[in-house]
Amino acid sequence: MDQIIFGIHAVKSALNYLSDRALSDKTSENDAALITALYVDRNRKDNRINAIVELARKKSVKVTFVERKKLDKLCQGNHQGVVAEGNTPKVKSESYLDELLQSLQEPPFLLILDGVQDPHNLGACLRTGDAAGVHAIIVPKDRSVSLTPVVRKVACGADQTVPLIQVTNLSRTLKLLKNYQIWIIGTAGETDSTLYNSNLTGPLALVMGTEGKGMRRLTRENCDILVKIPMLGSVESLNVSVATGITLYEAVRQRSETK
Questions:
Q1: Among 106, 138, 101, 119, which Cα is nearest to 3's?
Q2: Beta strand pairing status for 164-167 and 63-66?
Q3: Nearby residues of 202 by Cβ (< 8 Å), 6 or more positions away
Q4: Are 206 and 113 in contact (CB under 8 A)?
Q5: Model pLDDT for residues 155-193, shown as the tens digit of each residue
Q6: Can you list the domains of the chain with their CATH numbers?
Q7: Which of 110, 120, 180, 186 sits 20 to 30 Å CA-CA off 209?
Q8: d(Cα 7, Cα 136) in Å, to the nearest integer?
Q9: Averaged over 93-107, what is the pLDDT?
């Protein structure tokens, strides 16, 4: 199914992800990354646009130069003069999670987002998750955003590299993770334990709730421990994508010291 990818960084990342195998074998694992068409503002001639056009041609992607108004009709957002049509990345299922956990040769490192509905936040979490090396991001199917064009733009290609797993019952999934001996750490402002005095090494799933409301009750009850990010100023909470970045990189710091 075709989906719009727009913006210089998002389109460039998607083009870079294309492999020769994906171009020659449309049934390959990289099928979701295929770009089927690229539309470029005919009046833009700057170096960034020229580089994307050259990259697209190297990847055998058809480039069509059009008026800006056509790009405006193709997407709602700041397309920066470039819009691509591509196959929608496949959201993974619960069965994929089971297969992933069985195949890992290192301690699992997972991010769980409980009820994130803002596409900008999900896109930012995908990007940070890729940078931090998480094996997958898990979200519930209800009251959560999925892979939209805005998510893909903000993710800057991380939607292609970090599996997004949607589950029907998050509580059941948390129980599955415990069967794999994965330590589940939730974030909450009212606990006494801080992120920095908690052990984030070993098999780990970090759970982030929505800004203000936090995690849902059943999600909270299935966490092994709760931790908080120390807040030293006057604000009571952080944007979920900011809090996710802080939390993931404390885990990265601790995990790198144990290697």
A1: 119
A2: unpaired
A3: 107, 183
A4: no
A5: 887 888 899 999 999 999 999 999 999 999 999 878 889
A6: 2-87 (3.30.1330.30), 94-257 (3.40.1280.10)
A7: 180
A8: 25
A9: 92
